[in-house]
């Protein structure tokens, strides 16, 4: 098999991505009482700088890192930074499975926005997938229930929109720069953003001995998740990678049940499955040029 079509190896890499994102969620919960989200992002990004730079040096790819299109990098990383902070603020407020299910709506938002921002064609299939995805979000969020739209759900939805915006800008960047360059400026710029936001009041909390292992786990988990996802996409089409990524939902639901006694909510699974189906329809149509 060629390096660009090795689905089994891509699936194995995606398991690393599933593990990485799960580690981020668990570590965020563990240090939430000691550090606020901008402080978490500061330490996570600084660890990321070391890991990405070390990877570039060891693999001889430092030459790929350049200062071209810094404005686009800054836009992409500002949007992504906002999304990650909103996600971390939502993390302790709603069950993990619900948070992850809402996050899966980001590709559908991209599908709707791409015709306006990337010049891609709007098709009936894209409209159908967006409608199905919206139905799935309603099932997950249940805005008309007695509880209504909770602050945690609203924060999760806002983070999904930010992640969608980040994906759109990333699509523009990957036409000109490599993944190593994108990750390098991601960690550098988000370190600066986090330092500014976390230190605006002149006080930045330091992790204690209890929090340090969790901070390290969050930083390593973030890089592992993103690099595994990128590697998987280089080995197989998105139509193969995305179904494996969807394993994040049942995996994090089990984690939530074991660690935090969160119930297995069938409505979240139903809505998540519909969102997944909508993403699958859109990906298949894109793969076939429809």
Topology:
Elements: H1 7-31, H2 37-58, H3 70-90, H4 96-103, H5 106-117, H6 124-141, H7 151-173, H8 179-198, H9 212-235, H10 238-245, H11 248-260, H12 266-287
Helix pairs in contact: 1-9, 1-10, 1-11, 2-8, 2-9, 3-7, 3-8, 4-7, 4-11, 4-12, 5-6, 5-7, 6-12, 10-12
Please, could you describe this protein's structure?
This protein is mainly α and 290 residues long. It has one domain (7-287). It is built from twelve helices and no strands. It has helices spanning 7-31, 37-58, 70-90, 96-103, 106-117, 124-141, 151-173, 179-198, 212-235, 238-245, 248-260, 266-287. α1 runs parallel beside α10 and α3 (70-90) packs antiparallel against α7. The two termini are 27 Å apart.
The total of beta strands comes to: 0
State the share of residues found in helices, binned by percent. over 70%
Q: Proportion of β residues?
A: under 5%
Protein structure class? mainly alpha
- What is the domain total for the residues? 1
Low-pLDDT runs of 5+ residues are none
Mind summarizing the main beta sheet?
none
Overall geometry comes to globular
> Average pLDDT, to the nearest integer?
85
Number of helices: 12
């Amino acid at each position: 098999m060629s390096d660009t079509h090795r689905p089994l190896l891509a699936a194995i890499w995606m398991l690393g991505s599933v593990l990485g994102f799960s580690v981020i969620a668990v570590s965020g919960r563990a240090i939430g009482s000691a550090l606020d989200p901008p402080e978490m992002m500061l330490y996570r990004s600084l660890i990321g700088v070391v890991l990405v730079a070390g990877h570039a040096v060891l693999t001889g790819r430092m030459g790929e890192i350049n200062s071209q299109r810094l404005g686009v990098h800054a836009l992409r990383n500002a949007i992504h930074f906002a999304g990650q902070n909103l996600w971390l603020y939502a993390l302790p407020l709603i069950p993990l499975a619900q948070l992850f299910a809402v996050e899966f709506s980001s590709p559908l938002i991209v599908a709707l926005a791409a015709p306006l921002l990337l010049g891609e064609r709007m098709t009936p299939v894209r409209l159908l997938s967006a409608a199905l995805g919206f139905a799935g979000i309603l099932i997950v969020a249940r805005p008309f229930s007695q509880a209504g739209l909770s602050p945690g759900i609203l924060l999760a939805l806002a983070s999904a929109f930010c992640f969608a915006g980040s994906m759109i800008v990333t699509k523009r960047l990957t036409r000109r720069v490599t993944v190593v360059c994108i990750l390098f400026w991601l960690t550098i710029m988000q370190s600066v953003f986090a330092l500014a936001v976390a230190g605006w009041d002149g006080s930045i909390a330091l992790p204690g001995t209890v929090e340090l292992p969790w901070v390290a786990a969050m930083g390593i988990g973030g890089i592992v998740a993103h690099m595994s996802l990128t590697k998987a996409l280089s080995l197989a089409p998105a139509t193969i990678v995305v179904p494996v990524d969807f394993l994040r939902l049942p995996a994090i639901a089990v984690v939530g049940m074991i660690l935090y006694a969160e119930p297995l909510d069938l409505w979240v699974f139903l809505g998540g499955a519909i969102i997944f189906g909508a993403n699958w329809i859109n990906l298949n149509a894109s793969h076939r040029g429809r």
